[in-house]
Amino acid sequence: MRTWLHIIFWIVVYTSLTIIFTKWVGVAMEAFYYVSLLMPVIIGTSYFFNYFLVPRYLFKRRFFLFGVYSFYMLVVSLCMEMIAGILSFLLVAYYDVNQNGMLITDVFIMAGTLYFVVLVMSFILLIKHYLVDQKAIAELEGKQAMLDQGYFTIRSNMQTAKIRFDELLYIESLGDYIEIHLQDGSEVSSKEKISHMERTRPDGFLRIHRSFILNRDKLSSFSREHVMMGEKELPISRSYKQEVLRKLQSF
C-alpha cells in the first residue's frame, strides 16, 4: 500500500479501538492510555510479520523458519504488551482516573482484539499477493496465446488491425500514440500505450528506450549505443542499456 493509505489505515484502527475499548471499560481515558501505549507494539508486530516474515519465509515456502520466527515474534510482542499494560495501569493510578481500574480480563481481551488487527492486515496483503499473481499468470497466458496464433490485434483508426509477429520490426512511442513499423515499410498507428505493449508482448520483443520496443528476430546489428533494424538506427537509452546488452549478447 502507499504511505498515505498506511497512515489512514492506522488512524482508523486507532480511533475505532479507542471507541470500542471506551465502551468496554466505561472510561475513555483508560482506553486512550491503553490503546496509545499498545499501538506501537501492534504496528511494529504487524510490519515485522507482514513485510518481513511473510514475504521472506511464508511466500518462499520456508515453513519451519516461518514458524520459529513467528513464535519468537509472539513472545517478544507479548512481553512488550505486558510492559504497555503495566504502564497504562500506572498512568491510570497516577491520574486517579478510575478507582476500580481495568480488570486483567479486559487487558487480555484488548490484546486479543489488537492481534486480530494484525491478522486482518495479513489477510489483506495475502489477497493482494494472490491478485498480483493472478494478473501475472493471465499476462503469461495471454503472451502464450499470442505466440500460438502468431499475431496480435490492436485498435487503429477505429478498426481492429491484425499484426503478425514475423512482420513487425519495432514499435515507436510518439507522445499520446504509438506507431508499429512493419517489414514492408508500412506503419500502423494506435492510441495504445507503449507500456501496455511492453507488458503484453512476447519475450522476443525488447524495450531499448522509453520510446522504442523492437523485434529481436529482425535485428541487423547492435553496439553499446544503438541497434540497427535494417537501415534504421534506434538508440539504446542509458536506463535500459545494461539489461538490453545482456539480453542481446545472450540471444
Quick recap:
This protein has 251 residues and is an alpha+beta fold.
Low-confidence stretches: none
Domain count, please report it. 2
Q: Please state the CA-atom Rg, rounded to the nearest Å.
A: 29 Å
Number of helices: 6
- Cross-sheet strand order for the largest sheet: 5-4-3-7-6
Question: End-to-end span in angstroms?
Answer: 37 Å
User: Which sequence of SSEs, written as H and E, runs from N to C?
Assistant: HHHHEEEEEHEEEEEH
The major beta sheet can be summarized as: 5 strands, antiparallel
- The shape is elongated
- Overall helicity: 55-70%
Number of strands: 10
Show the helix and strand layout.
Blueprint: H1 3-25, H2 28-58, H3 63-95, H4 104-149, E1 151-156, E2 159-164, E3 168-173, E4 178-182, E5 187-190, H5 194-200, E6 205-209, E7 212-215, E8 221-222, E9 226-229, E10 232-235, H6 238-249
Antiparallel strand pairs: 1-2, 3-4, 3-7, 4-5, 6-7, 8-9, 9-10
Helix pairs in contact: 1-2, 1-4, 2-3, 2-4
